[in-house]
């Protein structure tokens, strides 16, 4: 299986990471098991606090466009995964000891314990500035 990042040919998000980065699961679902990939409810919690609650209908680029782009620059093989990011609403730092849970309704829930051997610490807040910029761009309002 290859992890493909649809936003970048050489994704900085994947450089220098170890085997615990970009977890997938709890299983891979095939297209025939998803009635409408354009309308999947997605939720993410950090330590039980809801951070994301949106639908794939809110994506900047739909699955059809992501697959078209990826297949225009490389040959897609069975098992390939296209990573497409987040909608940036509710985004904020995670750190050592946090528990992150992500659920795609009808497909499953993945729970990950965050471990940072350096025990770095950041303010626990939502990046409202980023969320507002993305929302304005989607509404066609200049940032």
* Main pleated sheet: 4 strands, antiparallel
Give the termini separation: 38 Å
Coarse morphology:
globular
Q: How many strands?
A: 6
Strand order of the largest sheet: 3-2-5-6
Quick take:
The protein is of the alpha+beta class and 143 residues long. The chain is 15% helix and 22% strand.
Q: How does this structure look, described?
A:
The chain is an alpha+beta fold. The protein is built from 2 helices and 6 strands, in the order E-E-E-H-E-E-E-H. It has helices spanning 63-73, 128-138, and strands spanning 3-5, 41-46, 49-55, 81-83, 99-104, 108-113. It has a 4-stranded antiparallel β-sheet with strand order 3-2-5-6, with no helix packed on it. Strands 1-4 form a two-stranded parallel ribbon.
Write a concise keyword list for the protein shown above.
22% strand, single chain, 6 strands, two-stranded parallel ribbon, globular, 2 helices, alpha+beta, 143 residues, 4-stranded antiparallel sheet
């Amino acid at each position: 299986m290859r992890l493909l990042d649809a936003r970048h040919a050489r994704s900085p998000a994947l450089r220098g990471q170890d085997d615990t980065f970009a977890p997938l699961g709890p299983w891979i679902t095939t297209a025939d098991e998803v009635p409408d990939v354009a309308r999947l409810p997605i939720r993410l919690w950090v330590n039980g606090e809801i951070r994301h609650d949106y639908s794939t209908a809110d994506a900047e680029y739909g699955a059809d466009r992501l697959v078209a782009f990826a297949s225009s620059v490389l040959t897609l093989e069975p098992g390939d995964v296209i990573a497409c990011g987040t909608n940036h609403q509710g985004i904020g730092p995670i750190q050592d000891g946090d528990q992150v849970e992500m659920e795609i309704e009808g497909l499953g829930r993945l729970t990950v314990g965050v471990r940072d051997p350096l025990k770095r610490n950041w303010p626990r807040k939502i990046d409202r500035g980023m969320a507002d910029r993305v929302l304005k761009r989607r509404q066609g309002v200049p940032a």
